Structures are given as C-alpha cells and as structure tokens.
Automatic annotation (TrEMBL):
Keyword Nucleotide-binding: no
UniProt key word Hydrolase: no
Biased composition, class Basic and acidic residues, residue ranges: 197-214
The species this protein was found in: Dawidia soli
Keyword field: Coiled coil
Protein name in the entry: PspA/IM30 family protein
Protein family membership: Belongs to the PspA/Vipp/IM30 family.
C-alpha cells in the first residue's frame, strides 16, 4: 500500500522546500489531502478485510480443533466397544487408526490456523493503529490548512492595501493638505477680522450713545438750576 509511504514522505523535512517551489501551495496541499483521504478509505476497507480474515481463520481453527477432539473421542469409543465385544477387535483397530489419523490431521490444521490467526490479528492491529494515526494527522493537517488559508487571505489583503499605499503620491497629498490648511487659516483670519470690525462699530455706537446720554443729563440739571433760580416750579 502506498498510504504509509506517502505518510512518511509528508513527514520529511524536504516537504518545506517543495512547498516553497509550488505555484499554488494551498491547492497542492488540498490535492494531497484529497489523495490521503482516498488512501484512508482504502486503508479502512483493507483493515476491515484483514479483520474479517482473522475472524474467519479463528472460527476455522476452533472448528478444526473441535473436529480433532471429536475423532480422538471416537477412537477411544470404538476401542471400548471392541473391549466389550460389540465390535471385532481387528475391525475396531482399523477404525480407531482412521479416527486417530483424522484426529491428528485436524489438530495439525488447527495449529496452522492458530498461527495464521495470530499473524492476521497482529496485522489488523497494526493497520488499525496506522489508520488512527493517519486520521489524527489528517485532522491536524486540515486544521493547519484552514488556518493557513485564513492567514493567506489576510496577508493578501494587507499586501493589496500596502501596494496601493506604496503607489500614492504622498508629497502631492501633503502639498495639497498644506494648501487647504493655508486657505482655511486665511478664511479664519478674515472671519476674525470681520468680527473685530463689527465689535468696533458696536463699541463706537455704544460710546456715542453714552456720551449723548451724559450730555442730556447735564442739560437737564442745568435747566433745573435755572428754574429754581427764577422760582419756576
């Protein structure tokens, strides 16, 4: 199976150099993960088949062992019948030899099957362990891929913004801002001048009114003095 070779290959340090040379590392990584998922499916099916073979071999081994035990018991039984006179001794010995032959045959087959069962069970355990490791690694790699894809989107957006900023005529913008600032300051100064002129006009008017008011009061006082002097009430 090529699944474990690929798993070993991905774990090599040279993979980093290979990724750097890829035109599109994200797509290549996604393709690699798709291949690994397909291999994982094949590995799972292969494990199921090996597990089934182990179960089948174990059942056959138990069956052969049971048959061996049965023919061993038949050999004893036929000799017991010969001992009691129920069966001719010579015939009983021939039948007992045949039963013992089958007893030995099935016993040897059960021993061979027992070796196969051990080997198949060991293989199935190793395959299960490897598939579990591959599952865990794939989950980790898929998570890392999602993180890298998100980081790549951010980096591309940042690159685009920085690229746009790099092409901006910063000196032209600064000069334009300085002109706008100067124009605003001129407008603020003009508005302030108008305000001061308005306040000056109001101040002079108030001063004139104050003077006129003071003169009127003085005239009234003088007139009242004359009237008192002349005795006019």
């Amino acid at each position: 199976m090529n699944i474990f070779k690929r798993l070993f290959r991905i774990g090599q340090a040279e993979i980093h150099a290979a990724v750097d040379k890829m035109e599109d590392p994200i797509k290549m990584t996604e393709q690699g993960l798709r291949e690994l998922r397909a291999d994982l499916t094949e590995a799972t099916e292969a494990y199921a088949k090996v597990k089934a073979l182990a179960i089948r071999a174990e059942n056959d081994q138990l069956q052969r062992l049971e048959e061996s035990r049965t023919y061993g018991e038949k050999a004893i039984l036929i000799m017991q019948k010969a001992q009691s006179g129920q069966v001719d001794l010579i015939k009983a010995e021939d039948l007992a030899r045949e039963a013992l032959s089958l007893h030995r045959k099935y016993y040897l087959e059960s021993e061979e099957l027992a070796v196969q069962v051990v080997a198949l069970q060991r293989s199935s355990r190793e395959m299960l362990q490897n598939t579990e490791i591959l599952k865990e690694n794939m989950e980790k790699w898929e998570k890392e891929l999602r993180t890298l894809k998100a980081r790549m989107k951010v980096s591309k957006a940042t690159e685009q913004v920085n690229k746009q900023l790099a092409h901006v005529d910063s000196n032209g913008i600064i000069a334009m801002l300085e002109r706008m600032k100067s124009k605003v300051e001129d407008q603020e100064a003009l508005a302030k001048a108008y305000g001061e002129m308005s306040r000056e006009r109001h101040s002079k008017k108030d001063e004139l009114d104050s003077l006129l008011k003071n003169d009127s009061s003085s005239i009234e006082k003088d007139l009242q003095a004359i009237k008192e002097k002349l005795g006019i009430s």
